[in-house]
Amino acid sequence: MSFAFQALSTFLSIYTLLLVIRVLLTWFPNINWYDQPFTTLSQLTDPYLNLFRSIIPPLGGMDFSPILAFLVLQLITQMVNGLSAGQFSL
User: What pTM was computed for the model?
Assistant: First the structure.
């Protein structure tokens, strides 16, 4: 069971890093999202981000939905790490 929590925690850490990269790359308007590796990055992260874009629409050209996406992902990561450490019980 501990291995599953460790694997999930590692996955969440990697996914968080991919989200950070995706959000930072949006600051560069000359990136062609149809070229590799940007297409793959977009395909991996956009479904998750789109969940929050439907909740928080872009306001004045600024997309604040990644903030909520990061908060939820951080909460999930802390819960998984807590379960792994035995702080919570199922």
Answer: 0.85
Q: Counting every residue, how long is the chain?
A: 90
CA distance 66 to 74: 12
Name residue 53's amino acid. Answer: R
- The CA distance from 86 to 90, in Å, is 10
- Return the number of other C-beta atoms located less than 10 Å from residue 3's C-beta: 8
Instruction: List, as one string, the DSSP characters of 13-25.
Output: HHHHHHHHHHHHH
- Side chain identity at 57, as an amino acid letter? P
Cβ atoms of 81 and 58 closer than 8 Å: no
Q: How many CB atoms lie within 10 A of CB 19?
A: 19
Mean pLDDT of all residues in 10-34: 94
Dihedral of CA atoms 38, 40, 43, 44 in degrees, nearest 10, equals -110
